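Hey, quick one: can you model this chain's 3D structure?
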Amino acid sequence: MNLGIILSYFNARFFNSSLDIKYQFVPQVIFLNSLFGYLSLLIVVKWCTGSQADLYHVMIYMFLSPFESLGENRLFWGQSVLQVILLLLALVAVPWMLFPKPFILKRLHTERFQGGSYGRLGTSEVDIYEEPDYARQHHHEEFNFSEVFVHQMIHSIEFVLGAVSNTASYLRLWALSLAHSELSTVFYEKVLLLAWGYDNLIIRLLGLGVFAFATTFILLMMETLSAFLHALRLHWVEFQNKFYHGDGYKFNPFSFASLADEED
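Sure thing. Here's the predicted structure for all 264 residues.
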């Protein structure tokens, strides 16, 4: 009962109707966790076990050869069976978020506006007071099924492709760490060790000074700023667009001047 109350509040607070939960939120969560949530699990398991498994190989052949033996890339017992189940869930989630909602909206529109039904619909779980924005905005207009279906198709394709491309975009942080490691190796071998190979104290001190300058201002300051900016961009563009949609009300700050203008 408490779970039902929580879901009802969650639905009223963040969604236009229960259709958004059943046919958008739930399949999207299943799709993300079946693929990228599983990848996060593999990363944690690899860290904890010290395995030398190639996670790129695991994820790629999860799609190309789901029934093939993992071999040395096997991280835990039952991994092959789990990957097949997760792949099937991800494949089912795509038509789940694509097809049901437009047909249900069409049926609700037919029952409410053409059949003259009011109150709670006997064949639907959706309350008329929770009907989607589309139905409320087109109260006296003909229901355009093709427009709704195309909109839902674009939304579904954008989510699937965006989930893959946005997650892959996080590889830029790995590239930054690789570049940082290579720069550290270059400064250490070509500056510090090279200068330390001379018997001249002045050359050694000069090499130590150059290495300290490069470490402080290039490796620490510039690389830290670069990693911060990339992480900020990834959070704003790739991560936040999964949750934020700018389709609400424009913020209008309180002002006494605006009140005076309205009175005039």
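One thing worth noting: Residues 66 and 84 are 6 Å apart (CA to CA).
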